[in-house]
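Batch job 17 of 40 flagged for manual review because the log was empty.
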Amino acid sequence: MLPSSLACIMLLWMLPSSLAFVFHPSPLGVSGRLAAPLGCSPLTKPRLQSALSRSLVASDGSILIVGGGPSGLGAALELDTIMNSELREKWGGAKITLVDKAQPISAYDPTRGFMYLINELGLKFTDRHGLSATVAQDGVDGSTLNGNRIAVDGTCSKFSFSFGKMRAPYWLPRDGFVSILETAVRKRAAVDVREGWEVTALHRIVEGENTVLEATLQGPGGVQQTMRPFLVVGADGLRSVVRESLNAWAEEDGGSNTDRFQMEEKSSPAGGLRYKVLKLNKEFALPQAPPVNARQGVAAGVTRLYEELRRGGYSNDSGDEDKRARPDAAAGDHQNQTHPGMIDPEQSYSFLSRYLGSLKDKNRETRLGLLPLKAKYEYRTANIITWPDHDLWTNSTLSTLPGIKHFLHDSYPQVPWDTAVTEEELERFAQSKGGRFPLPQTTKGGAVWSSSANNVGVVLVGDSLRAFPPDLGQGVNSALKDVALLGDSLRNASQGDSASAASSGYSFDGAGASNSRQQLATALGSYEAEATGEAKALVRLMQLGSPYQYSQPGMIAGLAKRLMSANLLLRLLFSKIPVLGNAIFFPQVAMMSQTLAGTISYREMLSRAHRTSFAFGAIAIAVALAGGQVLFGELNRTLVYWTVMSMWACLFKALGF
């Protein structure tokens, strides 16, 4: 449903909000959800059991992963590589169990029909596990966006836009990318993938000075199994019950950090917007359209200006030139054709509504966008994104098949609905409750729970750690970064395990403890420090990026959208200034998140964004001071002094001091 990919403000003049949304993640649906103990709410505090109620059985040396999305499957690949291949002698091997409520895991789910743009950050993970060639084969090259803007009368305006010098990203549907990961995971002998399974209880069992994790699993037909893993990975999404269990444990333990696993929400104009996804047939022909003149005006002018600034691309400070370059001939080209014919599966399409820009009928205005998709998938998805009080949600007639058919035929007469979609899909679409963008949010500093004395732990990855609207296309890519970071933390901890191993007499039953397991708490602590810092920076970047790309209603939102576009162009222009560019002036967040993903951290992106803001602040103060001198003559010396000091303070901040 939700495309988890790239959001670039420069396209907002051409693309509808529904297509702009494609530029990110963030899935609200959660699979493999960790359920509460039977008869209890998810927030019920975990029980602590004494030796009188049950006997202690040490950890069975296994790993439990809750959730079979990209982060869960990625964790299975990464942990199996470490435990059972690279560092098997140190970690002693481990049986890995992955549970997910979905059956099958990689099937198309209309409630989660996201489109992913796997950029360099995500490709670094697929490189690590030999999957990048498959991603390239099954995906559409996203380094250039070839688009078609279809007006109500059927007129098609074509455009092509390149994102500059960067490793080619790839468009993939969620089910397609999950299938790639699942296929790789099922080849791992030590990984047990269980579809239709859930965790019905997760406890810390304390007996004296010993703590053991215990999870009760329930599968199809009510069959149950108990596990005592030494590591639990919570990859169960925004509504993570793994995280809620950790939150309950923190409250039970008391102290000053009882809220460390609570989610802290930040404001965003994109938060709360609602969406639906319509599954279209793979191919359908668009109607004949009359010839028109080439599109003119602000949209074309802004796009041409942006392309002129963008030529040559934006690369990192190292000056690497080995990344895939844009095809210059295609960038920024605009031309009209009288009839686009059959839709091309590897091009994007945006359909304009009859009610576009209508103040009288603003609650009928919608926008429909299709993203590039390989023909092998046998379908196309179109998304509609609107504000919460839109007719699509409040008018009960639109939840019926006749009502939604009339609405779509009336709003988009240029779409051949009779051949583009089945009645069964229209009825499902009408009845669907859709989803809602979350506010940018992350925990208040908590990502792991561990017991160093007993070498057991719980860790959060992906949307269970942080979530946000799909503004910047970082959802799936940042989730894979979490998994890679967890793997690297375990590898690094393995290098210094000898001293710890000598001081600990704790051993595991089953898999046989090894020295590296004594360093589990150290590894998880290292992961938490890095992952929470990156999560907080990423949440802030979401607020600064492109939250007005969805054409929210109202004059203030319209003005904010134009200022957002001007800000992007201004920062891009200043970043091209010799010497100062890439020193104190950097491109806008939406651009850096795509061109520099995988080469610098989110914290560094945020630092660069702030440094540019301080540089603009210094310029604004200098201009104001000069203007005051011209208009009012000699100014108060104290005022001049503090103004100059403020200017220098901004300049020092811009330089990174």
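Reviewer: the log was empty due to a logging misconfiguration, but the result itself is present. The first strand starts at residue 63 and ends at 66. Unflagging and moving on to job 18.
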